[in-house]
Amino acid sequence: MLRRLYDQTMKLSEHRHALWALALVAFAESSFFPIPPDVLLIPMVLAARTRAWRIAAVCTVASALGGLAGYGIGYGLYETLGQPILEFYNASEKFIWIREQYNANGVLIVFSAGFSPIPYKIFTIASGVTGMDPMSFALASLLSRGARFFLVAALLWKFGSPIREFIEKHLGKLTLAFVVLLVGGFVLIKFAL
Asked: Which helix (H) or strand (E) element contains residue 160?
């Protein structure tokens, strides 16, 4: 089943609307969706390595715009939308600490969260709630997400065939590692912050 899903994802990554799907996932992930856009970015670049930079650019811009949507949720809709999202991710109790840290380290926090596997949406919403300067937020978001997605695209562009063979050979183990990292990011938010 996992192999069939992988093959189907690789085939869909070549579809004429694949960039739009990637943009939608990247946008949603930065504000409310739990699955990172890497699940589409990686197969899309592997399927069309000559388009790696365009794919990374679409992912970056959509993710940064999604970050602004998350900022908007925090800024204008915290009580109706932001707080339930934070509660869904069990991050409400840790939110007070995050809010205090923004007073001194907002740009560094946003940049670090945007580049790391930590769920970025928590930090986009927090930026809006704390009233972080929108221009500083947008710049940190664009730079960190761009660094992350262009790094992935560059590695896949440079080492595409061996990476694809490695993924196909170790698909089960890599899927397990992805799930562990995804869950680990949420656990980190819940217990470490």
From this structure: helix 134-169
CA angle 8, 9, 10 (to 5 degrees): 90
**How crowded is residue 34: how many other Cβ atoms within 10 Å of its Cβ?**
13
Q: Cβ(57)–Cβ(142) under 8 Å?
A: no
* Dihedral (Cα; 165, 171, 173, 175), 10-degree rounding: 130
* Total of domains in the chain: 1
Compute the distance between CA of residue 61 and CA of residue 147 in angstroms, rounded to an integer.
Answer: 12
Give residue 77's domain range.
Answer: 2-192
Longest dimension (CA), the chain: 48
* Cβ contact 88:53 at 8 Å: no
Q: Give the rounded distance of the alpha carbon of 76 from its chain centre.
A: 22
Segment 159-169, tens digit of pLDDT? 877 876 776 67
3-state secondary structure 57-125: HHHHHHHHHHHHHHHHHHHHCHHHHHHHHHHHCCCHHHHHHHHHHHHHHHHHHHHHHHHCCCCHHHHHH
pLDDT for res 144: 95
Across 100-121, average pLDDT: 82
